[in-house]
Write a structure and sequence with these properties.
192 residues, alpha+beta, six-stranded antiparallel beta sheet, two-stranded antiparallel ribbon, 5 helices, globular
Length: 192
């Protein structure tokens, strides 16, 4: 059942049952260039939407403070949301940024949930992203918004986004239901 769910063939909802839903077109993107899911979907002619958008101020713990080069207790802005395709949750995204990079008051009322697109459209100069990619079992706090079972396999991206001075401006966690995404990597061969 988990295998069918990660392929996008069925959908299980706790307390409701298991439903055959058919396959949606997967979002397909390379990992060489950082793009928002919204940008990838538009390029493919697919519609995605955002739900469960939660924007809040949090206090940096030691780990987050260290990532940003700040002191523990510094104020950060956290943006959490679910990305949906065909009204089904397919990704859960969490971005954390220092308040001097993104403050709650900076976001317009029609903010669509894409932090990357917002920063780029605002004119922020961003240089690179370092991302660790792994497969994980969904924890309870991630499984609930994705409407999956705890322990279901997810693709997990843990990324830091840098400005040209090497400063970390965004720390993000992205959780993808595998059947809805095809990520590819283009690599050079050997020493070329």
């Amino acid at each position: 059942m988990r295998s069918f769910e990660t392929q996008g063939l069925i959908r299980r909802r706790r307390g409701s049952g298991t439903f055959v839903v058919g396959k949606v077109q997967a979002l397909d993107g390379g990992l060489e260039v950082l793009e928002s899911l919204d940008t990838i979907a538009k390029r493919m002619g697919l519609e995605v939407s955002v739900s469960d958008l939660n924007i809040e101020t949090i206090t940096a713990d030691d780990e987050l403070a260290g990532s940003f080069g700040l002191s523990a207790g510094s104020k950060l802005t956290r943006v959490r949301r679910v990305v949906r395709a065909d009204n089904r949750p397919v990704a859960y995204l969490v971005d954390v940024l220092p308040e001097d990079v993104l403050h709650l008051k900076d976001l317009p009322s029609d903010f669509n949930g894409s932090v990357l697109d917002f920063l780029l459209n605002r004119g922020d100069v961003l240089s690179s992203s370092r991302t660790n990619v792994s497969a994980i079992g969904a924890t309870a706090d991630v499984a609930k918004p994705l409407e999956i079972q705890r322990g279901d396999v997810l693709l997990h991206f843990n990324a830091l986004l840098f400005d040209p001075n090497g400063r970390v401006v965004d720390a993000s966690l992205s959780y993808f239901i595998p059947g809805y995404f095809h990520f590819h990597i283009v690599r050079r061969v050997g020493s070329s």
